[in-house]
């Protein structure tokens, strides 16, 4: 098994099942002791803002705020720089534990030995 998992989630409320799958896989990996880096891009970028995850609903899925809390507690969540800029999201506006970084950082993380990358 990879020692690190990098997950890029592009879906948000526009594709709720795909979005939920990404957060669920990230949370399960964290709970399993895997080093997880979850990247919020596209429509998932909105979940970097306080309260937005609580608005997300999907029957039979774990609550998104709980998944985010578990990922932040033992992993890393990053908001894409360009995605943040397009939505006028700044570091001052994001929830605690979310950083903003760009493609260079994503590529560096994804290309590290022992890393598995997934895109949802």
Q: What helical percentage do the residues reach? A: 25-40%
Query: How many DSSP E strands?
Result: 5
User: Which descriptor suits the 3D outline?
Assistant: globular
Q: Compute the gyration radius: what is it?
A: 13 Å
Mean pLDDT: 96
Major β-sheet profile:
5 strands, parallel
Strand arrangement in the largest pleated sheet: 4-3-2-1-5
Would you identify the regions where 5 or more consecutive residues have pLDDT less than 50?
A: none
Q: Strand pairing plus helix content: what structural class?
A: alpha/beta
Beta-strand portion reads: 15-25%
Number of helices: 4
| SSE order | EHEHEHEHE
Task: Describe the 3D structure.
With 120 residues, the chain is an alpha/beta fold. The protein is built from four helices and five strands. It has helices at residues 16-31, 64-74, 81-86, 103-110; strands spanning 4-9, 35-40, 76-80, 98-101, 115-119. Strands 4-3-2-1-5 form a five-stranded parallel β-sheet. Strand 3, helix 3 (81-86) and strand 4 (98-101) form a beta-alpha-beta unit. Helix 1 (16-31) packs parallel to helix 2 (64-74). The protein starts with a strand and ends with a strand. 34% of the residues are buried. The mean pLDDT is 96.
Which secondary structure elements does this structure contain, and how are they paired or packed?
Elements: E1 4-9, H1 16-31, E2 35-40, H2 64-74, E3 76-80, H3 81-86, E4 98-101, H4 103-110, E5 115-119
Parallel strand pairs: 1-2, 1-5, 2-3, 3-4
């Amino acid at each position: 098994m990879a020692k690190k998992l990098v997950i890029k989630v592009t879906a948000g409320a526009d594709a709720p099942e795909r979005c939920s799958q990404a957060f669920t896989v990230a949370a399960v990996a964290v709970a399993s002791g895997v080093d997880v880096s979850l990247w919020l891009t596209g429509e998932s970028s909105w979940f970097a803002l306080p309260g937005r995850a609580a608005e997300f609903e999907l029957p039979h899925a774990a609550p998104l705020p709980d998944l985010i809390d578990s990922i932040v507690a033992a992993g890393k969540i990053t908001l894409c720089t360009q995605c943040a800029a397009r939505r006028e999201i700044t570091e001052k506006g994001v929830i605690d534990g979310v950083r903003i970084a760009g493609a260079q950082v994503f590529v560096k993380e994804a290309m590290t030995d022992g890393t598995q990358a997934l895109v949802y």
